[in-house]
């Protein structure tokens, strides 16, 4: 008989059965785990979150009333931690702008200088211009600004003396709203048409794809300009904005439908889809329960990559004057002030909306690249 050694005790269940790592995690948990490993994807996610937060609470983050006027084409005011004698102080400040008697030899505008005798102290959650949060709640608190409510211009002013930073923050609301609305409509129409066309196939698919090719064959830029120019100048701003969204959506859904159709053609031949057909499942159930969840990963990535394209398109059309009309504010509309080289050379700070556009494009592209790798965790 073999002696039993206490050191040879059989392993416990916890040690004997080892589950594969992350084996019980859901699909969304696996996607999140992969996305967290991508620093570009996480950077894009953080920036997108900050951009959306800024757009939703634009009035709160804007330090000034975007319609208030001051000195025209005033340079940016630099935040300083020194008083006029050069001594270090803990509370940041900016110095007021004042016109001198000298004129710019190019533009013949008064040269603007700093008034070091009147510092304006800065702080957080300060009182300023009144606004209505979400259009309902009266408020006058701003995230950052002067403690005495005096105007500050961190990015300078435009030709009418309006604060560029405040207008850029308020303009993010219109620019992002147009982009998100257009991409939502494009995704809804493109995904539906693509899945239906790829699933049913046959003559229906052939004729539907000829129509899609007809839409793709249109030269989009001339068509954008032609359609938007049909709107009367006296039309209400909401009507004009809605028409711009409809035009962009009508010309943008075709590419999405072609991509989704290709995915659907591959999915329609998989065994579980054929098994559902064999047991008599309805077409609607097969499309919604078996095909739609499997194309969603591609659609999500396509959405994050389509939003920057719409932002760039709106900025370009706004620069040409075919997108947003005053009194609305958008990044493209603000860039109309940069139409002449002399203005850019003398007042380069009016190019500040370009920085907002670049950050937005980078944020959504980085998030899309991170999601592209994360949606296939296996």
TrEMBL record:
<keyword id="KW-0812">Transmembrane</keyword>
<comment type="similarity">
    <text>Belongs to the binding-protein-dependent transport system permease family.</text>
</comment>
<dbReference type="InterPro" id="IPR035906">
    <property type="entry name" value="MetI-like_sf"/>
</dbReference>
<keyword id="KW-1133">Transmembrane helix</keyword>
<feature type="transmembrane region" description="Helical">
    <location>
        <begin position="221"/>
        <end position="254"/>
    </location>
</feature>
<dbReference type="InterPro" id="IPR025966">
    <property type="entry name" value="OppC_N"/>
</dbReference>
<feature type="transmembrane region" description="Helical">
    <location>
        <begin position="344"/>
        <end position="364"/>
    </location>
</feature>
<dbReference type="GO" id="GO:0055085">
    <property type="term" value="P:transmembrane transport"/>
</dbReference>
<feature type="domain" description="ABC transmembrane type-1">
    <location>
        <begin position="172"/>
        <end position="368"/>
    </location>
</feature>
<keyword id="KW-0653">Protein transport</keyword>
<keyword id="KW-0472">Membrane</keyword>
<feature type="region of interest" description="Disordered">
    <location>
        <begin position="1"/>
        <end position="20"/>
    </location>
</feature>
<feature type="compositionally biased region" description="Polar residues">
    <location>
        <begin position="1"/>
        <end position="12"/>
    </location>
</feature>
<dbReference type="Pfam" id="PF00528">
    <property type="entry name" value="BPD_transp_1"/>
</dbReference>
<keyword id="KW-0571">Peptide transport</keyword>
<dbReference type="InterPro" id="IPR050366">
    <property type="entry name" value="BP-dependent_transpt_permease"/>
</dbReference>
<dbReference type="GO" id="GO:0015833">
    <property type="term" value="P:peptide transport"/>
</dbReference>
<dbReference type="GO" id="GO:0015031">
    <property type="term" value="P:protein transport"/>
</dbReference>
<keyword id="KW-0813">Transport</keyword>
<dbReference type="Pfam" id="PF12911">
    <property type="entry name" value="OppC_N"/>
</dbReference>
<feature type="transmembrane region" description="Helical">
    <location>
        <begin position="176"/>
        <end position="201"/>
    </location>
</feature>
<protein>
    <submittedName>
        <fullName>Peptide/nickel transport system permease protein</fullName>
    </submittedName>
</protein>
<feature type="transmembrane region" description="Helical">
    <location>
        <begin position="295"/>
        <end position="324"/>
    </location>
</feature>
<feature type="transmembrane region" description="Helical">
    <location>
        <begin position="39"/>
        <end position="62"/>
    </location>
</feature>
<dbReference type="GO" id="GO:0005886">
    <property type="term" value="C:plasma membrane"/>
</dbReference>
<keyword id="KW-1003">Cell membrane</keyword>
<dbReference type="InterPro" id="IPR000515">
    <property type="entry name" value="MetI-like"/>
</dbReference>
């Amino acid at each position: 008989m073999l002696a039993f050694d206490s050191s040879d005790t059989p392993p416990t269940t916890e040690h004997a059965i080892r589950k594969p790592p992350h084996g019980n995690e859901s699909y969304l948990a696996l996607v999140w785990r992969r996305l967290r490993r991508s620093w570009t994807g996480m950077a894009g996610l953080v920036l997108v979150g900050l951009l959306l937060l800024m757009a939703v609470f634009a009035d709160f983050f804007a330090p000034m009333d975007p319609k208030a006027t001051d000195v025209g084409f005033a340079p940016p005011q630099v935040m300083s931690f020194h008083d006029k004698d050069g001594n270090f102080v803990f509370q940041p400040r900016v110095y007021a702008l004042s016109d001198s008697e000298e004129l710019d030899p190019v533009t013949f505008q008064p040269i603007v200088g700093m008034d070091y005798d009147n510092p304006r102290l800065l702080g957080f959650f300060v009182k300023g211009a009144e606004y209505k949060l979400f259009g309902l709640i009266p408020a006058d608190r701003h995230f950052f600004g002067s403690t005495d409510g005096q105007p500050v211009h961190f990015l300078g002013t435009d030709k009418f003396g309006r604060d560029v930073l405040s207008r850029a923050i308020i303009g993010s609301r219109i620019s992002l709203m147009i982009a998100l609305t257009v991409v939502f409509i494009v995704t809804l129409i493109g995904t539906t048409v693509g899945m239906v066309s790829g699933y049913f196939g046959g003559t229906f698919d052939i004729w539907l794809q000829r129509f899609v090719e007809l839409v793709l064959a249109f030269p989009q830029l001339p068509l954008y300009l032609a359609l938007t120019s049909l709107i009367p100048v006296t039309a209400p701003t909401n009507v004009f904005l809605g028409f711009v969204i409809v035009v962009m959506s009508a010309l943008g859904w075709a590419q999405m439908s072609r991509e989704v159709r290709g995915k659907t053609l591959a999915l329609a031949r998989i065994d579980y889809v054929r098994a559902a057909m064999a047991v008599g499942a309805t077409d609607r159930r097969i499309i919604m329960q078996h095909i739609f969840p499997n194309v969603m990963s591609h659609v999500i990535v396509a959405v994050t990559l389509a939003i920057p394209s719409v932002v760039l398109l709106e900025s370009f059309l706004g620069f040409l004057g075919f997108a947003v009309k005053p009194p609305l504010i958008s990044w493209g509309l603000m860039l109309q002030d940069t139409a002449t080289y002399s203005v850019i050379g003398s007042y380069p700070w009016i190019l500040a909306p370009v920085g907002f556009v670049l950050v937005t494009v980078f944020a959504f592209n980085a998030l899309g690249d991170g999601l592209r790798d994360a949606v296939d965790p296996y």
